[in-house]
Amino acid sequence: MNKTEVLVIDDEPQIQKLLQITLESNDYKVRLASNGKEGIALAANHTPDLILLDIGLPDINGQEVLKTLRTWYTKGIVVLSVQNTESAIVTALDNGATDYLTKPFRNAELLARIRVALRNHQTVAISSKLVLGELQLDIAGRTVIKNGELLKLTATEFNLLALFAKNEGRVLTHQYILKEVWGVGYQSETQYLRVFIGSLRKKIEANPNQPKYLITESGVGYRLMASL
Known about the structure:
Helix content: 40-55%
Radius of gyration: 18 Å
CATH architecture of the largest domain: 3-Layer(aba) Sandwich
Number of helices: 8
């Protein structure tokens, strides 16, 4: 069986070495690029299963690299960056990042994020029927079953949950969610979204005040987690 290939685009030799050791010891194949141009070329020539992308590159801004990759690359891109401001995170996610991890990071968390990103791409490609913990979603049939019982969701609640399910593990920004579910004219209505998230949590969560599925990413958006 071929190993899962990860392309690392980062100009710091120490980070490259750390990532290579961590990934190869967990049975991933690794390719390394030290700048944006090299990373884009390697991605185009070898089509990795996942890309780890640093935003602070010496030749091209990492956000521009991200936008360029997203014109054709459809698999997971996890951003690794020392930039931890909400604006940097939101911009990366809106530009197509699958996830965003701030340096320094723990190896265990990095590996978990990689697994989620890979699973997310595989799940969407395989079927419209998804199992997320206690939840069973049939996107084509527009039904949700929790512990054997059919949940009664409104059309909007189902559309929200389906959007999250298709992007399981990925942080979705407020603006992205509002645009996808309600349309372009609603992209500033974050309070509107908060109301519907609260309503959906009451139906899918055992304890809506301590959600385990729909997780709030403060100031950025929401993430649906089944498990790591």
